[in-house]
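for the writeup, i need someone to sanity check this before i put it in the appendix. the sequnce is what the collaborator sent (i think, or maybe the updated version? ugh). structure was predicted straight from it, no edits. if anything looks off just tell me and ill rerun, i have time this weekend
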Amino acid sequence: METGKAIYKLLKDSADVGAICADRIYPELAQQDVDVPFIVYTVTDTTPSGTKNATSKLDTARVELYCVSDDYEQSMDLGIACRSALDRQSGTVSGVEVQSIDFDTSDVQFDPDQRVYVLEQTYDVRIQRTGTAQVVSQFPGNTFTVEEVDGSPSGAVNKLVFSNGSLSIDGTTGTVTSGGGTSYYTLKSYFANNAGSSTYAYIPFSGNTDSTALQYRHQFLCPFNGSLKKVYIWRQSGSNMSSGTITFDFHRLTGVASSSSLEDQVLNAPVNAGASYNVSFSSSTVSAGFVYAMIVRNDTDQNLGNVVVSLVFEVSSIA
């Protein structure tokens, strides 16, 4: 019953479904002599996840859905609309806590007696019977939290696998599998610079002391092949910079204490305290095993003050 309520609500609220079959959505059995196209769905099986001393906190149901039309292409279009409305949905739907809906199979047949095409789809639906189901968006570009919400967990979560296979966490070990997306690495630096304007310094990657002399704490041994894409800066203190520029000059070491510039980018004032700014790099290729450094040149009307700097690299491979 709970599963059927959620399925009906999702189908009824879908504009794409409504554009094809209006409100002709029926549980179990369609009305006699109903116009095509229409949808019939049925919950064929519900399996509880029982515990020794409590009722099921999670039920898994099997849903069969039928898209009926006298036009083959229209039945296909209705099936696509239904899948879009149901597949990968989660959250509270018509008072039902839907943990997940997963599309399983699809098949189409022609009924010669009724002269209609019947597209059958099956779905696996997980209904959470305690707590509140979390809405989970698709990757990329999001985060979510897995947590116990009803106060009485029956056991620990030992393994978490994302649906697209990009990340598997087993115990305390996380394995990332590339699916053709882009990987990034962020290098952070914290330091205080009160040397005034028209000054430059190598930023530190160990400790928090910048310097006009290139030392080991200002050097980064790169473990991957890729490129520098962005540099972010945030000033924790100091007066607002109303004029001038801040230049980020990215170097590759050519000796123990010498380097050559790969690319520099300029951030124009105003650069205010408590605000975040960034510049983009386009030609700073890095290679595994080489050492790099970043110079910040302050040509504004104020000291830099306490600064946080982040270097964002796009990683192509690890050598």
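The chain has three helices and 18 strands. Residues 183-317 form a domain with the Jelly Rolls fold (CATH 2.60.120).
thx in advance!!
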